[in-house]
Amino acid sequence: MTNKIQPSNHGFVDDVSILIAQAKQRTAIAVNNELTLLYWHVGQRISQEVLAGERADYGKQVVSTLSKSLTAQFGRGWGQRNLMQMVKFYDVFRELSIVQTVSAQLSWSHFVILSNLRFG
């Protein structure tokens, strides 16, 4: 018995290849969705618990410390600039239900662009 796929089985190979590609696409969408929700929640926590009201100066120091800690623990992507972008994301899109609905269609990059647009 041979392990080689015969030329007559190219349709089979193509079908399996399509299944794999579709699964990879669904996985990418699911990961993007989860990351977008994570960034919204991080922005919410920072906005509400650290930057709220009179504690703004103190909050900026906390964000800097948080950034250093998260970067040490999880690597790139948790810089102070990124954390502040997450806060901005939360500030612009306050309704989690909207983010949950749209995050399957938009990437984090799209939300960053939308968060930076000025309306009105």
From TrEMBL:
User: Which residues does UniProt call coiled coil?
Assistant: none
Taxonomic lineage from the root: Bacteria, Pseudomonadati, Pseudomonadota, Gammaproteobacteria, Alteromonadales
Native species: Pseudoalteromonas aurantia 208
Chain ranges of the YhcG N-terminal domain:
16-115
Matching entries from InterPro entries are given as: PD-DEXK-like_domain (IPR053148), YhcG_N (IPR041527)
| Protein name according to UniProt | YhcG N-terminal domain-containing protein
